[in-house]
């Protein structure tokens, strides 16, 4: 990420402030970032095992995300060649657990329309 002129804060897409929360959300919002962290939450995985766990994500994109997550301090390459979470990465994943539990309750809630279910392909929610 580029630095703002005269500032110690990194420039964050969509933000003039470079606030840490904006930088974190921008990183986590990139394709496959959250999935990689989620798949590594229990045990380290090799690059190939991680790709399989991520539904055969493009190796190029997967490696780019792993590089970004390593630079951010969330993922590390272990001695055995597998990728695992750092202490900071494990802490981040722990912050996801309340959201995960909420998502599980939401998925089984009786309101499928709120989850986008029951609409035809390309049908706007307002047309129902």
UniProtKB/TrEMBL annotation:
Coiled-coil parts of chain: none
GO molecular function term, any single one: DNA binding
HTH hxlR-type domain segment(s): 19-111
Keyword DNA-binding on entry: yes
Biased composition, class Basic and acidic residues, residue ranges: 114-128
Keywords: DNA-binding, Transcription, Transcription regulation
InterPro entries documented for this protein: HTH_HxlR (IPR002577), WH-like_DNA-bd_sf (IPR036388), WH_DNA-bd_sf (IPR036390)
Region of interest (Disordered), residue spans: 109-128
Keyword Transmembrane helix: no
The protein's name in its UniProt record: Transcriptional regulator
Organism per entry: Bradyrhizobium guangdongense
